[in-house]
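Page 37, top half.
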Amino acid sequence: MGGMMMENFELMGKFYLGNEIDPATGKKSNTLVLYDSKDLTTHGMIIGMTGSGKTGLGIALLEEALMDNIPILAIDPKGDITNLLLSFPEQKAEEFLPWINREDAAAQGLSIADYASLEAAKWAKGLADWRIDGARIKKMRESVDFTIYTPGSSAGVKVNVLGSFRCPGDRITSDNELFLEKIQNTASTLLSLLNIESDPLS
């Protein structure tokens, strides 16, 4: 990871993670922090205290990868990464409105619409401070198709593993060769889950 003084950080293979912070003053410098995606060839880990920004950094890395057309399969038991879809290119109050917490608005004595306007303005300013505008958000959204799979829930696209073990239809059962292939593939899959390498029919 290295800092660079440059205006154009949209370089293929370089992930923009923000700006360096002066540890003495705590203020943001003009030196960009760019991460070389070539370093992400095996495994990585983000470690930090609660509230230190682990999730935020992870989402930033995913966003940068998506903008470089790198496909991602993210397994997220907590559900934090779904926030990737809460990115609004127009940065208008109408985009924020469906996601506003009514209790937060009431606590500040504001209507839902007014609180949405406040949040939209806050996010627009915060992103602009880090050189992120609506055009960059739009580019990220247009670079990828998002799908959220939710096993055991109807909140997203359902995942039904057991459904693959249902008896196949007549088209397969009436064809001995196809039916045998289906049985072999199913048995091989189950054995592989148990770390057993074996011909299921031997």
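Page 37, bottom half:
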Amino acid sequence: MRKPARPHRYNGTVIAEWQNVTAGYDLDALWSTAQITRAGYAWAGISAQRVGVEHLTEWSPARYGDLDVTGGGRFTGDELSYDIYAQVAETLRTSSPLRGLRTGTVLGVGASQSAFRMTTYYDAVLPQSEKVFDGYAFIVGPAPARRGPEPVFNVLSETDVRSPVRPPDTDTFRRWEVAGSAHSGWHGQEYRRPILTRDLGEAPTYQCDAPPFSRVPLHHVIATSYDHLVRWTKGRTPPSAPPLQFNPDGSKARDALGLAKGGIRLSQVEAPTALNTGDNSGETFCFLFGTHAPFDEARLDALYPSRGRYVAAVVQSDARNLREGYLLPADARQNRADAIHSDVGRD
């Protein structure tokens, strides 16, 4: 549980994340320190699945040894996970874990495998139970087929978009696709590295076929979707976004630099200093990491004859994304500062 240290900073919304257990332990895949804390959200990571809870009991028996999500071994296939997730969220609404903070909105969010679990919850369990969540965000994973009254955001990286066939946007559904971003990119890896080193002894390393970890900040778009989702629960519909483009043969369309065409195009794609894609290959999870290959000096000089030209390109791209509702002002300001202090473009 993470919440604002000062009660007056709390914005009244809890982001309830279904913890991801693909790696064999609980992963707060959607935690983003700057974006979540500055907005005043509270965040709760919910351990609903057996794999994650069993890892906790082994890692710290003194603290977690009494936890059990199997009904004493009767339900070992995570059958209870849906009720666990919903019941914890209901508890968050009553504010008991928040120590008196008043909660008006609870968002159900999950990434990748957790989005799969939440899709089952939304499609099959929710119609038979009482409403707990005000809105849902399915990130880098599938979204429900059912269209219910609660608003649903589906934010996908370039990695996750494998077909030009898509469900249409509706009054309660939005799908955003982010060019150049990866299912598991640089931002998440850098956040988790010191934690994994502390808790597990070391962070994993990977031998991928291309330089891994796209640096297109998908978390900027995810943070924007949370703000839209809160407003959507109050009747304000968010913008739609253009899809990624595909060639007639089914491959993703790319420009002369190798960057994906279409989709939400952040300044890291519109004013590029590297080839960032959602594609990679190699061992284990490499296919999820995307690619980051910095341009050489000759290409950078050709694209940006001066530092001012580069900064202007970043600012112009971010201004467009701000107008269209895909980026938050604080992230645009940080992008501009990063561009000014970079070594891109001749002085």
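Margin note: The beta strands are 13-18, 42-46, 105-111, 135-139, 152-157, 173-178, 274-277, 291-294.
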